[in-house]
Write a structure and sequence with these properties.
Blueprint: H1 20-28, H2 46-57, H3 63-73
Helix pairs in contact: 2-3
Length: 77
């Protein structure tokens, strides 16, 4: 689904932002290791969190915006 454009079918488009419930779920990950979410990594890093958000919530943020996402969720950058 990565690389989809607005002219493509709706099934290929990402949602624009996380809902309140999705934010709560993402924030809950700060107390867990990525391995507890089935991811082979030792720490939550920006590219990993970005990919996780796309895969789990179908929301894609720019890399620049991900710094704000990481800060808001309490995950280290």
């Amino acid at each position: 689904m990565r690389g989809c454009r607005a002219r493509q079918p709706p099934s290929c488009r990402h949602h624009f932002r996380l809902t309140d419930d999705q934010w709560d779920e993402l924030t809950a990950t700060r107390g867990r290791l990525p391995s507890e979410a089935g991811i082979d990594a030792s720490a939550w890093r920006l590219p990993l969190v970005r990919d996780y958000i796309v895969e789990i919530f179908d929301v894609e943020y720019s890399s620049a915006h991900m710094y704000r996402v990481m800060k808001k969720t309490g995950l280290s950058v």
